[in-house]
From TrEMBL, chains A, B:
<keyword id="KW-0479">Metal-binding</keyword>
<dbReference type="InterPro" id="IPR014710">
    <property type="entry name" value="RmlC-like_jellyroll"/>
</dbReference>
<dbReference type="InterPro" id="IPR010551">
    <property type="entry name" value="G6P_isomerase_prok"/>
</dbReference>
<dbReference type="Pfam" id="PF06560">
    <property type="entry name" value="GPI"/>
</dbReference>
<protein>
    <recommendedName>
        <fullName>glucose-6-phosphate isomerase</fullName>
        <ecNumber>5.3.1.9</ecNumber>
    </recommendedName>
</protein>
<feature type="domain" description="Glucose-6-phosphate isomerase prokaryote">
    <location>
        <begin position="31"/>
        <end position="172"/>
    </location>
</feature>
<dbReference type="GO" id="GO:0016853">
    <property type="term" value="F:isomerase activity"/>
</dbReference>
<keyword id="KW-0324">Glycolysis</keyword>
<dbReference type="InterPro" id="IPR011051">
    <property type="entry name" value="RmlC_Cupin_sf"/>
</dbReference>
<comment type="pathway">
    <text>Carbohydrate degradation; glycolysis; D-glyceraldehyde 3-phosphate and glycerone phosphate from D-glucose: step 2/4.</text>
</comment>
<keyword id="KW-0312">Gluconeogenesis</keyword>
<dbReference type="InterPro" id="IPR051610">
    <property type="entry name" value="GPI/OXD"/>
</dbReference>
<keyword id="KW-0413">Isomerase</keyword>
<comment type="similarity">
    <text>Belongs to the archaeal-type GPI family.</text>
</comment>
Length: 191, 191
């Protein structure tokens, strides 16, 4: 369990190459924890018979959920696919919907899938040395389309909260797949 | 003038080595704009007779000052000294005092000087690959004690506002100087 005193200044290392900290533990998300989110349920079942791959990790540093505090850390999405669908994060809205988030990509390549409650959506490229603004009101999911870990430093309002449920019911309007070696954005067949 | 649509997702490059963006302009702070902040007024006057050195730069990206938005960018403090006092930023409180800020150092070395309204203070080391939490309530000033540019990525609440005046009147309780080649924290003689 990571613990810091957020009323005092402190520093924490995050390797600028792989995003990892030597002084904190990551939270880990395995396939079994998000198995309903992938399209190809047959492939999911097949994989889970023998294995439970690590899809992504991120740092939860225990920032108090107070107005004025900022939660920060890094996220590492591993490379891989479930069928032809790339490894991705669960994605979420913030509970206080109109709160933004800033990502700064350190390594790897991929996309952020964004979608608001009115169904407006956008997919933004993430790559080393690019900051990405997730505007107020948009659910956001990180997708690794590359061959190495995709890692980014992130900051958001500590009291924003996470709403996984709204987007979990049906998923996003679009999914991101590898079609004959190319990244394609497809309509989500479940919508 | 940097302009972005903060209601839509967007990306912006910041070089992971030097902090610079190819698609935005920095705001520049020259010695003449902060000449009263250094201890050795004789040296300041002497320098300004012939020159007006660039002390630091940072990106102001025009984020609207709305609740839920996050201002971000990089700051670059140049290496150098005024007398024995290292180049530094003006430093400020946030107008909404109880708002934090996150820095992630990309290159160089230096310190963050922190001080709250009760006079509690701390100096925290900044170096490549270290994130720094500026807690709610603390004025913060970045100081470059190294030989190269000190650059960091930063994020803060867009509606926090900047209060330069409170700390400008007398300065911080402490100053950071090079004494015989070593960084020393000294009492501010003006206090
Ligand atoms: Mn988020
Ligand atoms: Mn600030």
């Amino acid at each position: 369990m990571n613990q810091f005193n957020w009323d005092q200044a402190f520093t924490l290392d995050f390797d600028l190459n792989d995003g990892l900290s030597k002084h904190a533990e990551t939270t880990k998300r395995y396939l079994s924890q998000m198995k309903d989110m992938y399209q190809d349920q047959q492939v999911v079942e097949e994989i889970l018979k023998n294995d439970d791959p690590l899809i992504y990790e991120f740092y939860e540093l225990g920032c108090p959920e107070r107005a004025g505090d900022l939660a920060f850390g890094t996220t590492m999405i591993h490379p891989g696919k479930i069928g032809n669908e790339y490894y991705m994060t669960k994605g979420h809205f913030h509970q206080i919907v109109d709160t933004a988030e800033v990502y700064y990509t350190l390594k790897g390549e991929g996309y952020m899938m964004l979608e608001n409650l009115e169904g407006d959506w956008k997919v933004e490229r993430m790559e080393r040395g690019k900051a990405l603004y997730v505007p107020r009101g948009y659910a956001h999911r990180t997708i690794n389309t590359g061959d190495e870990i995709l890692t980014a430093f992130y900051v958001f309002d500590a009291n924003a909260g996470h709403d996984y449920g709204t987007i979990e019911t049906k998923g996003y309007h679009h999914i991101v797949c590898d079609i004959d070696g190319e990244m394609k954005v497809l309509d989500n067949p479940r919508w």
